[in-house]
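Checklist before submission:
- one chain only
- standard amino acids only
- sequence pasted in full

Submission:
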Amino acid sequence: MDDSRIIDLFYERSEQAIAELSQKYGSTCMRVANNILNNLRDAEECVNDAYLGTWNTIPPQNPNPLLSYVCRIVRNLAIKKYHSNTAAKRNSIYDVALDELDNCFPAQASVESEFDSDEVGRSLDRFLRSLDQGERVLFLRRYWFSDSISDLAQLFHTSNHNVSVRLSRTREKLRKHLSQEGVYL
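Returned file contents:
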C-alpha cells in the first residue's frame, strides 16, 4: 500500500493504518531502534510507542515522506530510552558513532547557539545535498540509522577500513563546510 493511502487510513481513524504502517516500515523501524538500543525488547517497545505517536499526530500532520516521519519518532524514542538505560554507563555501539561527530559540531553552550540550531540544520541539509549518493547514504546509515561499520562494509561490499576512511573524509568535508558557513567549533 502506498504512503498516501496509509495516511488516509490514519485520517479515517482506521486501526488498519497501524497494521499497514507496521507491514511496510516495521522492519526499518526495528533496525533503527535496535541499532541505538542494542536490545530487542526495548526496540520493540519504542517501535510500538512510535506507532502510537504516529496515531496521535496524524491528523493533523500530513507527513511526506511517511518513512522519514515514523523513523524520526522511533529514533527520538530510542534515544530517550537509551539515555534512560545508560545514565551511568557507556554503550559502545551508539556512543562510538556519536563520538565520531564530536569534532564536527559545536557544543550547545549558550542561548545563541541554541537559537542558531535551525541554521545549523539547514547547513547540514545543504552539505548532504552536496555529497554524491553513495557518500550520502553511507553518512546517513552511520549517523542517522546508527549502522555499525561492519554492517556498512557488507552493505557497500567493501572492507571495514574502507568504510572508516570514507566516513572520516566525509566528516572532514562536513567540518570544512560548516566552517565556511560560519559554524565554528
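Reviewer check: The radius of gyration is 18 Å.
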